[in-house]
Each structure stands twice: as C-alpha cells, then as structure tokens.
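Anyone else keep sequences and structure tokens together like this?

Example one:
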Amino acid sequence: DGRVAYNRRFVMRDGTAEMNPGSRLAEVLYREGPIDPEVGVACFQTDALRTVAVLLHHTCHPVHGYPKRYVSAGWPGAWCDEVKRLFSGQAVPLVLNGCCGNVHHADILNRDHVDDPRRMGRLLAETAARAMEGLRFADAPVLDCRSRRFGIPLRPLDPEKVKAAQEYMKAHQEPTWKDEAHTLVDREWCYALGMLDLVDLRRRSPEYEYEVQAFRVGDLAVVALIGEPFVEGQLRIKLESPAPFTFVAHMSNGYVGYVPTPEALKRGGYETRTAHWSKLVPEALDRIAAETGKVL
C-alpha cells in the first residue's frame, strides 16, 4: 500500500538534506530514500477456526498528535479499531511498526493530501482485508527464537561542538523557553544538554550494547530492533531473510535514537545531528542488518 507513508527526508539544491522542509519546497530536488509499502498480516486461529489474534505490520512514524501535543494511539490504534470491526471484536489486533526513522505519514509534496490517523487506519484495513483473502493456515507451525547482543561504537564528538555546548549550558543552566507560557523548550538548549550527556556516556562506555531478537512462527519471522533505524536497513533485512515473511518491529527493548544510513549522515538533517537521540557510528545500520541476518 503506497497511499499512506512517505520518505520524510528531502535532498535540497545545496546538497544537504532536510526533514519535511515545508518552508523551502522550492529548493527540494528529490526524496532522499525509499519507504517500505508492505502491509503484513498474520492471523491466529483456534482448532474451531475462530480467529483470536491478528498481527499487523506496516512502517511509518505514528506522530499525528505532533505538534498539537495530545496523547493518541495514532494510525496503529485506528488500524486496530478497524480490524476489530472486521472480526466483530472477537480478535485481538497488535501492530508491529517497522523501521520508520525516515518514514512519515505526511505527504508535503501533495497539497490535497489528507493526513488523518482514522483515514490511514481505514486504508490499511482495506489492504489488510485483501491480504487475508489469501491466507494459508498451518496446523503445527514451528516455534523458535534467537537473540544476539553486540557492541556498536558511539559516534566521535566534535571538540568544538562540545566546547560550544559547555559554554551554552554554563550561560543557560535552566531551560530556555520559546514561549512565555513555558510549554516549548528551545531546541538548542536540548541539543546542548544532549551533547554533554554524550560526553558523559562516552566516558563511561565507548560502545552501545545492541540487541537483536528474532522469533519464528512457522513461515513468519518477527524481528525486534532497538531504536529508530532508517527503512533502508529493514529492506535489506527482508531481502536477505530466509523466512518467506519477515515483520520488523523497531523501538523494542531499549532506545538508542535514530540509526541513519552513512549517506544520510553526510547530508545532515534532524535525524543525523549528533545528540543523545542520534549517536551511533555511520556503519551502525549496516552492522545491525548484517547481525539480524545471522540471527534469522
């Protein structure tokens, strides 16, 4: 289903990259990368052929509530609601969101695009219903699981940027606010604090212990990854997987921030700027994909 998710990073005319550059659309050359349009569905039935659970897989940031700052289950919740209706409330749905570090539900190149979580849930439910028509059930699927832990080095820090962060925090020990009501902290204050966090983190350990989990249910492999890898890593995992079907779930078992491609790191942009939420070396995504392949 290519109607609901879009790569949110754009290469600009000056060679840099930006996330959803709404005010600079005239300077956009092209979207930096792909999406993963696959909609995965796995149903679980009793011996009486009653569906009791549905595992759903798609890849997209669930951030319809931002910047309005309300709590929402977003498109995953809307999708679950639609699937519950398909089964008259008798089946429990669960969404596994894929590696969407650079994938978003807003199409800024299309002025007529309706960016609404309920609409997205309905469209995904339509596609899931079509997928269910071709389901084949196994009587005794093989169950198995594996996990692997390995160290990934933290990104080297620019001494000049560390010095600038130290000076900024010395001058602004309390948060700097962008509004009088104190509801929005200045992003530069967050970046400065994040940089000093990284200095302390590197002092304690120069590596992050990353974990890959994989579960087998018959022909289905479910992969659990930490953090927000870019979708290119997930596409490689799927291409190289020995399983007929592979669902990847990001943000599992911990948080390490964005894991961009080496090319994206060279172009810059929100997801690549070194801070507590983007801190691994450029080769991290390739390493995660390779280790996941071994686990599978």
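And example two:
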Amino acid sequence: ESGAFRLICTDDMTNSDVTGCWQPNDNGSWSWLDGQAIRAWQGDGITGGRLVIDEIDKAGGDVFATLLAFLDSTASASFTNPATGEVVTPLPGFSAVMTSNIEHPDELPIALRDRFPVAIKIDAPHPAALMSLPPELRVIAATLVAGKPGKRASLRAFYAYNQLRQNPEVGAERAARMVFGHLAQPIIDALKIGTLTPEYALA
C-alpha cells in the first residue's frame, strides 16, 4: 500500500494543486514541490499510490483539463518536471478514485466518464458514522442523508445539530431551525413521534 493522496476540488484551486509549484526555500532560492497527482503517481517510489479526487465536478476548466491528462491511460500519461527535466509517468499500481455529488453520472463529461468505467452510487451513510450520533437521531439521519433532492441533509449537519441542541441557550427546536432550515419542522416532529412522515421515507 503506497498511500492515498487527496485533492478537494473547488472553483479556486489551481493546477499547482495537481502538478506542483515552485516555492521559496531556506537557501533564498526556489524549489519545486510536487502536487498531489505527481505524488500519487510516484507513491512510495516503487509502487504508485491512489489519487482521490473529491467533488471533481467543482474543478474549474483549466484544472479539469489537467486532471483529464493525469487520468489518461498509464501508457499515455506523463509530466515533465520543470526542476529536473525528468519525464514522470505513473508507477505500476497507481489508481484513481473520484467523487461527485451529482445526481446522475450522465451529467459528467464523456471524457471523464471514459476514465472511470466503474461507477458506484453511495446512497446511504456508513453505519459507523451513524453510530456516532445518539440513538434517537440515527434513523432520521439515515433517512435524510439518503433522501431525495430538496429533502436531504448531510451527516455533518446532524453532527452540528446534535452539538448545538445541547446548548441550553439554544435548545433542540431552535438548533434544528438554525441547522436544517426548511427541513427543521419534519425533524422536530420526528423526534417527538419517533419517525419521519411518509413523504420523507426513502423511495
């Protein structure tokens, strides 16, 4: 196992996150620092690592194009290190995984889908993540995390809610409205009766 190297895509990220960049060093000059994709390609120097690209659909045009180049077949992908002139290619064992919050894979560009022929839809939270919530929140959280668009809440929101509702100056109902917005009332009602109404049930 050569490790995983993570990229979190945003509108503000640049190619330096992917390929690397020049940075000032202690000698008063500049040194090249490899980006996450290069580090994943090289892994431990013997075996390539895994590049995890979170929310790839959030990447801007230039970064997206660079990622496509780095995700090309191992026979085609290469990068010339500007510091050494060395042509870097993925070591055997390199792999890549991407995540996206889009509803349908068809919304992704064809070139990207072609690089990830296997797609797995994750529509339920991990059981261990649910277990970190109090029992009365687990079923509600499991339902809304996997809910339909507009009737969906994240586990992060439930973690925040659980912490905030324990503040005596806030209380459970106010905390729900602060964290969940339009979903607050169904959650408040569910906590009172022990279940969500049918319209929020998984379908």
